[in-house]
Amino acid sequence: MRKATGRAPRTHDDAAEFSVSIAQIAKAPGSRRHIHFFGELDGLEVSGSRVPVGDQIEVDVVLESVSGGILVTGTVKTRYEGICRRCLEPAGHELLLHLQELCTENPTDEETYPLGHDLLDLAPMVHDACILSLPLAPLCDEGCQGICSVCGANRNFEQCRCEVERDPRWSALNLLYGGGTTGREDDTPVTNE
User: Fold this and answer.
1) pLDDT band at 64 (very low <50, low <70, confident <90, very high)
2) What span, in angstroms and rounded, lies between the C-alpha atoms of 103 and 62?
3) How far is residue 108's CA from residue 110's CA, in Å, rounded to a whole number?
4) Is the pTM of this model over 0.85?
5) Would you report the helix, strand and coil content of the chain in percent, each value rounded to 5?
6) Rounded distance, CA 77 to CA 39, Å?
């Protein structure tokens, strides 16, 4: 996964919640440690959606000592909220993100994360995974019908009887749907004979 630009905004509790000890596995290549915890991160927001402030983020990962660092593999689970791009009603869904990231003592931009001597800070990795997965234009539902462009009715809850004005340049296509006119003086359907 590519890293998001910038660093995760830190709160006073982040260091304890997202920092995990790697002292034992760092000394034994091939060893693993399973980590499962809940924590909060601030600043998880893009233009159209955000993780609500105060919501718990579930982190379930395996840390594995590999050549050159620690491989972090697992999932991050949270939810987001925003405004539906079609109907302007509240939208929100659960996010289940899969992680597989390498942490090294000498990290390279966009590819690896920093590795401390005895502690590994998972906050930047969790922050980046969440930010990169938040939708810029969320939907309340894939089948959202949106609002009527004429009367403004939410078509998910009510039907409107507004006639959508059709562009006369496309009127010849009405013949394909079994009705309508072409808008020409000679309105007889054209057939291929």
Assistant:
1) very high
2) 13
3) 6
4) no
5) 15, 30, 55
6) 11
Beta bridge partners of 34: 62
**Domain positions in the chain:** 14-133, 147-188
d(CA 136, CA 111): 24
CB distance 118 to 23 below 8 Å: yes
Beta-ladder partners of 91: 82
| Position 78 confidence tier, pLDDT thresholds 50, 70, 90 | very high
Q: Give me 109's structure tokens.
A: 């931009």
Residue 141 corresponds to which tokens in the numbers above?
A: 């539902």
Q: Which pair of structure tokens corresponds to residue 5? A: 């630009």
Nearest CA to 67 out of 24, 34, 103, 23 is that of: 103
Residues 6+ apart with CB under 8 A from 156: 87, 89, 140, 141, 144, 145, 146
CA-CA distance, 51 to 37, in Å (whole number)? 17
Question: How many residues are listed for the chain in this entry?
Answer: 193
Kindly report the backbone phi and psi dihedral angles of residue 171, in degrees, each rounded to the nearest multiple of 5, phi listed first: -60, -25
Q: DSSP per residue over 117-170, as a string?
A: SSEEE-HHHHHHHHHHHS-SS--S-TT---B-TTT--BTTT----PPPPPPGGG
Query: pLDDT tens across 145-179, in order?
Result: 999 988 999 999 998 888 777 778 887 887 777 65
Cα angle vertex 81, ends 79, 82, to 5°?
A: 155
